[in-house]
Design brief:
The complex is a heterodimer of chains A (about 250) and B (about 290). Chain A is built from ten helices and ten strands. With about 250 residues, chain A is α/β, with parallel strands linked by helices. Chain A has a domain of about 170 residues: P-loop containing nucleotide triphosphate hydrolases (Rossmann fold, 3-Layer(aba) Sandwich). In chain A, the strands form two sheets. Chain A has a six-stranded mixed sheet with strand order 6-7-8-3-9-10, with helices on both faces. In chain A, α3 packs across α4 and α3 packs parallel to α6. The longest helix of chain A is centred in the middle third of the chain and has 14 residues. Chain A is globular and about 55 Å long. The two termini of chain A are about 35 Å apart. Chain B is mainly α. Chain B contains eleven helices and two strands, in the order ααββααααααααα. In chain B, strands 1-2 form a two-stranded antiparallel ribbon. In chain B, β1 and β2 form a beta hairpin. The longest helix of chain B has about 40 residues. The chains are: A alpha/beta (about 250), B mainly alpha (about 290).
Amino acid sequence: MVDKIIIENLSLQYSDGTESLRNVSMGIRQNAVTVLFGPAGGGKSTLLRCLNRLNDLTEVKASSGRILIDGENILDPKTDVIALRRKVGMVFARPVPLPMSIRENIIYGLELAGEKRKSKLDEAVERSLKLSAVWDEVKDRLNDPAVALSGGQQQRVCLARVLALQPEIILLDEPTSGLDPISTGKVEGALLELKKEFTVILVPHSVQQAARTADHAAFFLTGELIEYGDGKTLFTNPKQKKTEDYIMGRFG
Amino acid sequence: MMTKFLSRNRHTVQRLGFIAITMVVIVTIIPIIGTIVFILVKGGSAISLEFLSGFPHDGMRAGGILPAIIGTLYLTLGTAVFSVPLGIAAAIYLSEYAKDNQVTRLIRLAIINLAGIPSVVYGLFGLGLFVLFLKFGTSILAASLTLSIMTLPVIISTAEEALRAVPQSFRTVSISLGATRWQTISRIILKEALPGILTGVILGLERAAGETAPILFTGAAFFLPRLPHSVFDATMALPYHLFVISTQVPEMPIQIQYGTALVLLVFVLTMNVIATVIRSRARARRQW
């Protein structure tokens, strides 16, 4: 097992002084689900948004440290952020289908990347929708507006949209927070398949989901990485008092 | 008993409120309907094929108003050519690129103030800049440019509003899928904001089509025996023609005045209806 991502002394502060990261260092394994969990305001989403440089869109006051993906520091100003975002896909808390058909949603990123061949695009649509376990539900209405789908289907289409770009890393920011248990089960099921091919980083919407899905788990509290380790061990036998208190539901 | 009294009282107040609001609505609508009906009745008899397609003669006391209709069309088109691209570009800059700082606040302040300037001041400005300084002469070009400056604030502010109404999440998602800012704008944001932008454009142009003061010194002609041949020609225009035949020509037949007013009104109202249709269609189709 190798570390796909190495985060070194990452600190970040937003312009309005809110949620920030304090000197976070961790390695993230390839082909595994790494879960970042903890109460709101802990810096989990910020960390995700650093990994695909989506924080470039936000007013950041100060940041320092390095993030190495395959050995390259992606926080370097010379980084090709477009290529980075194709390599590091992201699924958001609320499904955001773009205002177009299901098919157009899936091929959006590919077309931007210059893929014009219909056969390649069709192949990508089928492959990614199958991978995100929604193909059977939408295969007969690919040209319908994506927004007409149910929330759970939308979210899996959004996942497929990311997968279509054949990324290496997938970031999921509370992807099931608005979904019913059955849809949640489907998304989680898809994740287990995904980790065979991809490096998955998940911010879960509950401790239970964290425990269910984590190969590795990192507990964040007010911008600090409190504890990081093997998922099973961390949830059954946490070393830090704060981690234990949070898992047991004593705060948060 | 107390609650019963209170509830009866509340109902009375509610009913009175409804009556008051209905009255206000009626009072607002009456002048609009009144104006339209009045002009329709007084000017309807003047409308004929000859009136719409002929030149004025007998010192404008007879004949048609074709040169004024064509002139207003030219001026509206000319205004669109300059103000639409410029206005949309400015709105995209303000909504999508500009950071919130002193400079953009100054730009916004200027736009708001520009919208409040009396139209005759635009006319004088156009005379100074386009007619005299740039030597365009009293021409369609100078008048269109003057009308464009007057129209720009309307187009910029409605277009900016339409762009801002497109959910932020579309931008975030698009960028996260490897789109550049411009790809996001051109493929998603503009498309979604288009109906709102078009509405603003049409409302802006409609105002331009009906204005007299800005073209008074910059491009409007009292009378021309022929249609303009180039953008450097002066032109007759409906609002100015209406002003002329209402105040400058003695013994003017009244139905020609009202007929001209009716044509101008229909011209402007048609644009208004188009804008409304675009807006309501887009609202029905919108996916967010």
